[in-house]
Amino acid sequence: MPFPGVEVPHLCAQCDDYPCVKSCPVEALSIDQTTTAVIVNKEKCISCGKCITACPGQVPFLHPKDNKAVICDFCGGDPECVKVCVEAGYDALTLVHEEQSVNRKLFARNPIEVAKDLAVNLFGEKGEKVI
Amino acid sequence: MPRGYAGKFLEVDLTKEEARDITFSDSVLEAYFGGRGLAAKILWDRIGEKWPEVDPLGPNNIFLALTGPMTAIYPGARICCSGKSPLSNGTVGSTASTEFASELKMAGYDGVIVTGKASNPIYILVTDEGGEIRSAGHIWGKLGEDTIRILNREVTEELTKRRPNIGLWREPGIIYIGPAGENLVRTAAVMTKICHAAGYGGYGAVMGSKNLKAIAAKGRGKIPEVDAPEAVKLLWKEVHRHLIEESDFRRMGTGYAGYMVGADTSSEPIRNWQEEWHDEKRYGGPLFETRYWVKKYWADFNCTTSCMKISCIKSGRWKGDITDMPDYELEAYCGTNLGIFDPGDNIHISAVIDNLGHSGINGPNTMGFAAELYQRGVLTKEDFGFELKWGDAEAFEKLAWLIAKRERIGDILAEGTFRAAVKISEMKGVDVMPYAVHVKGIEIGAHGTRSDADYTHDISYAASVQGGDHTSVAVDGYTEMSSAVFTDSAVICNFCFFWVPRSLVFDFAKAVTGFPITMERWRKEHGPRIVTLQRALLLMGGPDIEWRPIEDDDNPPRFYEPLPSGPHKGKTTDRELVEKKRSTYFETLGWDERGVPTKETLQKLGLADLDRAIRNLRK
Hints:
heterodimer, A: Alpha-Beta Plaits, two-stranded antiparallel ribbon, 6 helices, globular, B: Aldehyde Ferredoxin Oxidoreductase,  A, domain 1, four-stranded mixed beta sheet
């Protein structure tokens, strides 16, 4: 919410080419063969932040408590965020199974950039000025 | 420290430029909870018998922004602003929905206590590392939208600089004031999120008087632990279930009421309350929704109800205006009360009011008062510099600016409706008090009492310790203690509360804090303790105003005029009923026949130290 009303969900887009995994200097990140999600090995993580800058959407972050990288691991294939959203009656999140696609990577964007577009969508010309 | 609380409060002395952490004892927190209750306690403890000497807009007043133990845990997080009110000279617990509250708790603070006065404009930044005072020279004088944009960017950049490799930060929560607060307009609000406001009480002016432009908070910690986590989980789900089922309210918010309250219950202010009925279908909710709502289901942190909607005008002469719905209060006060019945004009005035940092109820109440004086020829074009005709949005925009900048007649109107009425009566030699719609200096919310068909009745405002505040009305001295007095002290949103069975809410409060809380205790102990303390401070008043018991515990003259139109034509507030119910109200709360708390009541409620200060008020 760089400006009120322009709230941007900021979630892992599950890129097919794994720039975060490639960027890790200590091989702390790996790919779960079943879910295709990224798994962080906290023992190996050195908190360098390289996976964050490598991500086109800067989605990973270092956890405030242990300072280790946090990347969506799909909760082992049954994401809690989807379950709770459905249970709460919002139905904003759904689990979809997709084939590989270059489009998917385009969803990984810096939230400020997304907010700029959303602001124009919501507020018209005024939106150009508010972010 | 009991559960539900982050564990400490931030105290900032602006004169000494010092910030430090403080705590309160468990027994004080149990007795006063947080927000409105704790604010009154802090103010009394610190100011004490000097209360009547303290100028609300002087350096000896204290500005408080407090959460409560349920804030950010129960759905609908709010911040409660308080201090000695520059309008009522008592205290008001004035709340606004904002992520500032949840960020504050996640930074490890339950509230911010600001004393003294800064020598230059500043803002306070609260993070996990503590509080710091930063220069606000570059944002002083800026409108709301610009203040948010600049502060958001600045704070985010600063925090990123401090911790460069941890990833992106979500933006800070911010409360701030607009030009109205800076220029000590007594009706100025503490603003947040462009269009959310802690409006009643005039605390924007208190911030302004301290040269405090804003407080920003960003926490990376957790929401505080609760006493019974498993119970809270279950209760949260149950509360959520009740709220999510309110599909009509979730869809419309109060944004459909601008037509309904006038047409249905005849209790909507029209042209400074000269009427309360209209049947202007062009002012209906669906017209706002279809043409202007660009975002529906807009919520603050952890809010199920999500009743806010964002309006934006994308074309025409008011292009670029952004505000929330407007909600019912602003549809009334920035609309019908100014003779405006066009949704676009209403959104424009609301956006102007928000940007200037006026309270959307109190500020336009004074504007409507001024327009009636123009209608009656008491004020003229020479006073304003322009004609002020009902329904002329352009003229009312100019007036909002005049008041915010304290120019021409705006300088007098900036004192709020009651004080302006006193001054204009002297200045023009005409008694204009009959047109001032306020109770104890606080302009009345947009729900009239004359038709008796709305939720507001006879003593709703007359007996309330928060005067014209429509969010916390007096009922019987008993039942309301477990509603607004409670929600303002737990600091949760009323719109996440009304539809939930009370027993569930009080179980929630108990499960969060571990205090032996029940609804009955709030009605008999906690509520009366808070309200009795507020009543004492209100009666002590000063230095410029002292309210007269009984005489000022009454509705404004307008509320006794018969309604001139509509299905309730001829009806008016029943004066005998007011007197009768007011007596009962005082009796229920253990106050004497003039509404001064008795010595026995003070002792019973643990307020014995108040007795010396109010003894001389008893006859």
